[in-house]
Amino acid sequence: MFSRENSSNGILIAQMNSELQHAHLELLSAHCAAHQLRLRFSADDLARFAHRDIVRKSVQTAHALSEYYSSIESKIPSGETVSEPVPVTENLILEAVGRVASYLREQREYYLQSATPLSNQKKALMWPYFSAALLDRVRVVELDGQRVLNPPFYERYRALGFVNLPEVAHMHSLTFLDVIVFNEKLSERALFHGLVHAVQFEVLGLERYAGLFVRGFVNTKLHFSVPLEAQAFSLEAKFAGTPTASFSVEDHVRLWVEQGRY
Q1: Which residues are paired to 176 by β-bridges?
Q2: 247: Cβ contacts below 8 Å, ≥ 6 apart
Q3: What burial class does residue 177 get, using C-beta atoms within 10 Å of its C-beta: 0-12 exposed, 13-18 middle, 19+ buried?
Q4: Which of 149, 208, 232, 260 can bridge 204 by disulfide, Cβ–Cβ 3.0-4.6 Å?
């Protein structure tokens, strides 16, 4: 057992928490990858056609991780367990929508000051999927040695029991209307993903986008299960899988609007 009074144990505890954080990020990445798989292929497809060895190893890994973390959870004193979120009222949702919309608008204005247009090379890569007008209007920022911070209102909603809020600093990119900010080096896939959100903003408008995002998160409890985000991941996977097959992202976004899929 560790003792916080022991200085050497204190160092080990700090190291343990650092490694736990790293493992958490890896789990989020794996969860996201599995969610993208779920969007494209049914469980029946995987059971029938996927490589048996890979499927079995994946299932075994998932079970082992579940057992390990469940054993940890069982040892946490009951008084320290995370409480359920407070009942979500319409007023609470509208408050959150207003906060998210203001945050997106403020971040857009802040990062626009250092943003640059897309290079002609990047535009050429994206022309088969996005309008020339959008590509001319979008601006990008590659952060160096820093990351976008979590919104200031996170503390309030975590205190209300919403513990799965997305960690902004751990995202590859964030789209603030027509400004895409990259926490890591700009890649083609990350740019495509960010541009999908730019199209969503263009079609839906800021207020409607914020409303759909908040309601989607309340319903699904996970950032990448929100329909707006799920569509971006799905189209990103389509782009990465067949980069020579052109399609209109705007058409896909408008179709989802017409079908009420957001």
Answers
A1: 179
A2: 128, 129, 238
A3: buried
A4: 208
